[in-house]
Amino acid sequence: MSKYKNIVILTGAGISAESGLATFRDEEGLWNKHKVEDVATIEGFARNPDYVHDFYNEMKKELIDVKPNKAHLAITELQKNYPADISVITQNVDTLHEKAGNENVYHIHGQINQAVCMNCGNVIATWDDVTTEDICQNCGVLGMFKPNIVFFGESLLCMNKVDELLRKCDLFISIGTSGVVFPANTFVRTAKYHHAETIEFNLKSTANNYDFDKHIIGKAGETFPQYVKDLISCE
């Protein structure tokens, strides 16, 4: 019998940073060239949808060739070789989990390669540019696509499923997340309340330090693969 039956892995910007995505917030990074209220709010999108589409189209070009790192690949290794239901909840809009072969991935902040029709809710997946000239193939309405990114003030995605996973998990793993962004910073507490073991992998202990039973400090691309190897070997 395996020690764990339901494992939930929460990932944040730190896991993607090891693939080079920290550059988005560097001095010359994409985010530092634009105001958040202009590119990440529904009000900003309503004011200037072309500007917002240009921003996310440019981000797509930056992300399309980025490769997953050893931490992403270790999740695939765990899912393939450990006899448990293993799900990934990610705050990241990149597709590195999918590129690594991870399954059961829930993007609570959306995905960079998707757009959603605000008229009918139809979601399309594309790495091509999305513009105000696009027509929804589902409802036939022009110019209603929005990047399928959760803007400030919008509800997170997949939250009913996330709540279900947190309530039944017996192992909660956090990788590369700061512990300060609501509501993801409460996920560990929910899991712990329902008697899950809780472990964090990070460069340093995070804001919700006391909610974790164990802290593994260091680069996730180094520490997490070893943890996975050890966990599988115990079977």
Task: Give a verbal description of the structure.
The protein is of the alpha/beta class. It folds into two domains: 1-19 and 67-109 and 156-235, Rossmann fold (3-Layer(aba) Sandwich), CATH 3.40.50; 21-65 and 114-149, SIR2/SIRT2 'Small Domain'. It has nine helices and nine strands. The protein has helices at 13-17, 36-39, 42-47, 49-63, 70-81, 96-99, 159-168, 187-193, 220-233, and strands at 6-11, 85-90, 105-107, 110-117, 123-125, 145-149, 171-175, 197-202, 214-217. The strands form two sheets. The protein has a six-stranded parallel β-sheet, sandwiched between helices. β4 and β5 form a beta hairpin. The mean pLDDT is 92.
What is the fold named in CATH at topology level of the largest domain? Rossmann fold
Distance between the termini: 8 Å
Sum up the overall morphology in one term: elongated
Number of separate domains = 2
CATH architecture classification name of the largest domain:
3-Layer(aba) Sandwich
Order of helices and strands: EHHHHHEHEEEEHEHEEH
Per DSSP E runs of 2 or more residues, the count of β-strands stands at 9
Q: Helical region count?
A: 9
> Which bin fits the share of residues in helices?
25-40%
Instruction: Average the pLDDT over all residues and give the rounded result.
Output: 92
Determine the oligomeric state from the structure: single chain
Unreliable stretches: none
> Over all CA atoms, what is the radius of gyration?
18 Å
Indicate the proportion of strand residues: 15-25%
Strand order of the largest sheet: 3-2-1-7-8-9
Main sheet?
Answer: 6 strands, parallel
Highest CATH level, the class of the largest domain: Alpha Beta
Class by SSE composition = alpha/beta
Assign the CATH superfamily of the largest domain: TPP-binding domain
